[in-house]
Design goal:
The protein is built from 3 helices and 3 strands. By secondary structure, it is of the alpha+beta class. It has a domain of 42 residues. The chain has a 3-stranded antiparallel beta sheet.
Length: 70
C-alpha cells in the first residue's frame, strides 16, 4: 500500500497543534519530509515514526524505599 503524503495543516490537525509546530519540525530537520516544488509533504509513516519515537511509556508502580513515619 502506498504511503499517504500529508500537508502541514493535516499534520497539525492530527497532532492537535497549530501549523507552526510541524513547520518547526521541518525547519529543524526533526521529521522526514518531501519537497514537491515549493510544496512540503510529510509521509504518514514518518509522522507515525515521529510519534512512536517521542511516546513516553508509563513507569510501573514502584514501592518507595522511604516510608512515612507513623
Amino acid at each position: 500500500m502506498a504511503d499517504r503524503y500529508l500537508t502541514v495543516s493535516q499534520v497539525a490537525e492530527l497532532l492537535g497543534t497549530t501549523e507552526r509546530f510541524p513547520r518547526r519540525l521541518i525547519a529543524e530537520r526533526r521529521i522526514v519530509f518531501v519537497k514537491v516544488g515549493r510544496h512540503v509533504r510529510i509521509p504518514e509513516s514518518a509522522l507515525n515514526a515521529f510519534i512512536d519515537a517521542h511516546t513516553v511509556q508509563p513507569i510501573g508502580h514502584r514501592r518507595s524505599s522511604l516510608r512515612r513515619a507513623a
